[in-house]
Design goal:
The chain is α/β, with parallel strands linked by helices. It has two domains: about 210 residues, Alanine racemase (TIM Barrel); about 130 residues, Beta Barrel (Lyase, Ornithine Decarboxylase, Chain A, domain 1), CATH 2.40.37. Helix content is about 30%, strand content about 25%. It contains eleven helices and 21 strands. Strands 1, 11, 12, 15, 16, 17, 18, 19, 20 and 21 form a ten-stranded mixed β-sheet that branches.
Length: about 375
């Protein structure tokens, strides 16, 4: 690649993570959650695409009490990086995973007699007393124990020589969207907690509100909140018009691999899905569906360069895409393009990209693959 100016990054395309924004968002969440609430910071799926180890360190340094992951592998990765904070594994484990989880002081969830027995046996083999959390299905219909069963499980855990109940929780299906269903879910969880306490069982740390519940302001009886999306400066889709002082932490940027002129009537890319109407100038960027920028962006979406919007044209390849820069003067090989992020007053948000893909912002950031280097930006 020849160039007319110095490149700002050694990479063809990359992701930037603003850790000051992550810390700021945690502070906003604490204010919304109310005094005395612990924060279980959810860093599953590579911290929603932001980089799990680095983001976890920032969140813990900023005061998050606990972390949440979805899988054993995610938890083990954090432990291997030297992170010692409590880590809740939010999805169920298979039998071969039980001993590694307990040996690494992760907190598995239980939701059936079988999961209690599996974890108790694994802890006994290791000579450990394992911390577990009881998940109650209060109306999500996905994972968790029915309320009546949850009480029996709690009693069984309390009587176990090898398990201890670190927490009891549930997950809300439609916070902020269906108040009546949310009220039913909260009531069911509260009834389970009352029955556990009446049976002499301490439920441990109680939590129910993830980002949606925090924005909706529900579940005040809980001891903790469990934010994911909000940590990264994003909001649930139903709350996009809410004024909340969150700061997006992620940008996707690239340098041009090629800048060239095309005359009128020329096609671009696989299938020649775009043909120039008049003479124009094209920039090729080294990011494609192999990096998590999917083919649905063919002739669909924009980038920013020199603070101006420019359209994506042609098909998305595994390793690249093309941009029509004919309306922007003076673009050189040293100019950064932003597919998500800001340049001057202009911004392309993950929410805008989600609209173009007919999906939600969660999927946009978590789809970004490891092939894109993460550059972690911190104050100082």
């Amino acid at each position: 690649m020849s160039g007319e100016g110095p490149a700002r990054s050694p990479h063809r395309a990359w992701i930037e993570i603003d850790h000051a924004a992550v810390s700021h968002n945690l502070a906003v969440i604490r204010e919304l959650a109310g005094a005395g609430k612990q924060v279980i910071a959810v860093v599953k799926a590579n911290a929603y695409g932001h980089g799990d180890v680095e983001v976890s360190r920032t969140l813990l340094a900023a005061g998050a009490e606990r972390l949440g992951v979805a899988t054993l592998g995610e938890g083990l990765r954090l432990r291997a990086a030297g992170i010692t904070a409590p880590i809740l594994v939010l999805w169920g484990l298979g039998e071969p995973e039980a001993e590694p989880a307990i040996a690494s002081d992760l907190e598995p969830i239980v939701y059936s007699a079988d999961t209690v027995a599996m974890l108790e046996q694994a802890a006994a083999r290791l000579g450990r007393r394992a911390s577990v959390q009881l998940k109650v299905d209060s109306g999500m219909g996905r994972q968790g124990a029915e309320p009546e069963l949850a009480i029996n499980l709690a009693v069984a855990i309390a009587r176990s020589r090898h398990l201890q109940l670190a927490g009891t929780f549930s997950h809300l299906a439609v916070p902020g969207e269906d108040d009546s269903h949310t009220d039913v879910q909260l009531l069911r969880l509260a009834q389970v907690l009352d029955a556990m306490r009446s049976a002499g069982v301490d439920p441990g740390l109680v939590h129910v509100s993830a980002s949606g519940g925090i924005v909706a302001g529900v579940g005040s009886f809980a001891d903790a909140v469990r934010p994911g999306l909000m940590l990264y400066g994003l909001k649930p889709q139903w709350a996009l018009d809410r004024e909340i002082d969150l700061r997006p932490a992620l940008s996707v940027r690239a340098l041009p691999l090629r800048i060239f002129n095309l005359p009128a009537g020329e096609g671009i890319g696989y299938g020649l899905r775009f043909r120039t109407r008049g003479g124009t100038r094209i920039a090729t960027l080294g990011i494609g569906y192999g990096d998590g920028w999917p083919r649905i962006h063919a002739n669909n979406g924009h980038a920013l360069v020199r603070g101006q919007r420019v359209p994506i044209v042609g098909a998305i390849s595994m390793d690249g895409l093309t941009i029509d820069i004919g309306e922007v003067d003076g673009v050189t090989y040293g100019d950064e393009f932003a597919l998500i992020g800001s340049q001057g007053e202009a911004r392309i948000s993950a929410d805008e990209v989600a609209d173009e893909r007919r999906t939600i912002n969660y999927e946009v950031t978590t789809a970004l693959r490891e092939r894109l280097p993460r550059i972690h930006l911190r104050d100082g």
